[in-house]
Amino acid sequence: MQRMKQTIKDIDVSGKRVLMRVDFNVPLEDGVIIDDRRIRMAIPTIQCVLNRGGVLTLMSHLGRPAGEGFEQKFSLQPIARRLSELLGEEVSCSEEDTKSRIILRENLRFNAGEKKGDELLAKRLADGSDVYCNDAFGTAHRNHTSMVAVPQEMVGKPRVAGLLLAKELQYLDDTIQNAKKPFVAVLGGSKVSDKIGAIENLLGKVDTILIGGAMAYTFLVASNEKIGSSLVEEDRIKNAKKIINKAAASSTKLVFPLDHVCAKKLQCGATVEVMSNSISDGWMGLDIGPKTMAEFANRLRHAKTIIWNGPMGVFEMEPFDVGTKEVAKAIAEATRNGAVTIVGGGDSAAAVSAFGLDDKMTHISTGGGASLQMLEGKTFLSVTLLDDAL
Question: Is there a smaller number of Cβ atoms within 10 Å at the N or the C end of the chain?
Answer without folding.
Answer: C
